[in-house]
Design brief:
Length: about 140
Amino acid sequence: MTTTPTVNPQIIGQAENAHKPLMARVLAPTGLTFHQWVTLNLTAANGGTVERELLVGRLTGALKIDDSAALQAITGLIDSALLEAQPATVELTDAGQARYREIRASIDEVMARVYRDIPAEDLAAAGRVLTLITARLNAEAAA
């Protein structure tokens, strides 16, 4: 009889690391880096336009990167014409919206297969626990 482990740093790390090759496979044909994908995703989640400073803050918080790396991801998307720079904001271009939808559809397809037989209540419990752990780790890191 196998015992299901409780959530711990090793289990969380293994789950995160298992996602990486799938993301790499989805992103490879697009030429985007993971940081650029997260930038597109955050911009799309904000309605397609976001204040540059706010976006940098969200990227540094979510990815645990410095401002320079966040700005590099934004600049790369501007150079690729997927984002358009405004004085204080960046916005998705038509090409950026199309690329976002293409990547999102691929990710959703893969994740649907991966998560398909997991009961909704288990996913909800895992979401609550991981959100709480993330908040506590962020608070600990900030202290």
